[in-house]
């Protein structure tokens, strides 16, 4: 048999791959091949044995799993801290003896617990005329309402950078670079709690919002009596 005939009869790569798939114990019967087969190292440019390559792949997979686990642990710790802050906030608000005390404690506690540079509340519904003088209560304005239509429509918090119009309305003449917007009102959102930071990365779109939604619902329930004039 000529050399050319041998070359012509050599199986294609796909055939080799299929053969190895059908015979998973092939290397068990030919362990000597594991030490001599070489695979190019993608980063170093040198060749490594198949066994070394398998070990590197396993190490890389383990490192990826460890990073995912570390990330999950970090998120769990952050959520636990956030839950503790929410519980302290709710405890303080539940003890408020007046609407003035309620809002004062809301602002001071959010500043303290969340380290925010600004806290703003805007309520577009005012059933209690006694509260008409407070800055939180604003008359309905279709143009302003449009700025937060998505937030109020979904009744779910959002985090990140605000539009220029939203920033000008909520934080005029400020250096707020990122914010959390939390809808207020149950079952239908008719207000906003905004917490702003001068740092761009302080609040970002990748943040979890489930606990913030929970906080907004609790604040809304505690706010109800003061809106009714109790």
Automatic annotation (TrEMBL):
The record ties this protein, via InterPro entries, to: DUF484, GAF-like_dom_sf
Query: Which keywords accompany this UniProt record?
Result: Coiled coil
Q: Does the keyword Coiled coil apply?
A: yes
Q: Which organism is it from?
A: Beggiatoa leptomitoformis
Output the Gene3D superfamilies linked to this UniProt entry: 3.30.450.40
For this entry, the protein name equals DUF484 family protein
A Pfam family hit: DUF484
Q: Which residues form a coiled coil?
A: 48-82
């Amino acid at each position: 048999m000529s050399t050319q005939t041998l070359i012509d009869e050599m199986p294609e790569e796909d055939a080799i791959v299929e053969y190895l798939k059908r015979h998973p114990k092939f290397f068990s019967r030919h362990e000597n091949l594991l030490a001599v087969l070489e695979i190019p190292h993608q980063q170093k440019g040198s060749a490594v044995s198949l066994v070394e390559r398998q070990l590197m792949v396993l190490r890389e997979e383990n490192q990826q799993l460890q990073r995912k686990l570390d990330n999950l642990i970090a998120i769990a710790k952050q959520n636990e801290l956030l839950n503790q802050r929410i519980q302290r906030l709710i405890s303080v608000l539940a003890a408020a003896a007046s609407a003035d005390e309620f809002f004062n404690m809301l602002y001071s506690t959010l500043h303290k617990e969340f380290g925010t540079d600004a806290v703003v509340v805007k309520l577009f519904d005012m059933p209690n005329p006694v509260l008409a003088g407070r800055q939180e209560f604003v008359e309905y304005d279709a143009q302003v309402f449009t700025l937060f239509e998505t937030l109020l429509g979904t009744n779910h918090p959002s985090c990140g950078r605000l539009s220029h119009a939203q920033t000008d309305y909520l934080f005029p003449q400020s250096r707020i670079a990122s914010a959390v917007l939390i809808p207020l009102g149950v079952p239908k959102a008719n207000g906003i709690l905004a917490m702003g930071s001068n740092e761009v990365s302080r609040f970002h779109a990748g943040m979890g919002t489930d606990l913030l939604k929970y906080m907004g619902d609790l604040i809304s329930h505690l706010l109800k009596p003061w809106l009714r004039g109790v």
